[in-house]
Write a structure and sequence with these properties.
Number of strands: 6
Helix content: 25-40%
Number of helices: 4
Order of helices and strands: HEEHEHEEEH
Strand order of the largest sheet: 1-6-5-3-4-2
Largest sheet: 6 strands, mixed
Amino acid sequence: MGKSTRPQGGARAGRDKLEALRKEQQAKERRTRLALITSVLTVIVLIGGIVAFTIYRDVSGRPTLDAVKTYTVTRDHTTDPVTYAQSPPVGGNHNPTWLNCGVYTAPVKNENAVHSLEHGAVWVTYRPDLPAADVAKLVASVPDTYMVVSPYEGLDAPVVASAWGVQLKLTGVGDQRLAEFIKQYRNGPQTPEPGASCTGGTDGTSTGGATDAPPPSMSPSPSPTASQ
């Protein structure tokens, strides 16, 4: 009687089935890994897109300072009256005594205010006929150190922001470029003596000396030791 081959055929069938199951399992694992990788890449792309959009929105929504004008100015001390090329001046020869930083209700002397610009202050001037509510809003919107705020006759814009060597004409007290100007130029890189004293000088106005003028209402700026 001949030898039966059925067990051998059954063994081969079993091995084939196991091989098929193994390949199916490998294919399933590959699909799972591919799906996971695709999901992770999708999340990364979405996060990158959100970050890029946020940066773009912040940058595009930020007021630009393209309208800032830059000037080359001298910086010698003089006790004589000075005729400045800009109005208000943004630098130039100036009085040896700086103007104390603060808020003034009357015009201040150019020669003293320019010295404050040399020390890093931003000088915000406004038309004398600006409504009181607008003046209050303007004062509330600026920092309380290294700032001079005062009315100024003859402005060709409602509000003008000046720092050493730079100036920006503003459309009014609500112009968002003012905050950006202050951020960039108050004790900014263009300042000859950043951080020098903005107190201990004079409170004099254009109509009198220091004894005639009320003290500025803004909190005084720090008075680090620095050259004048």
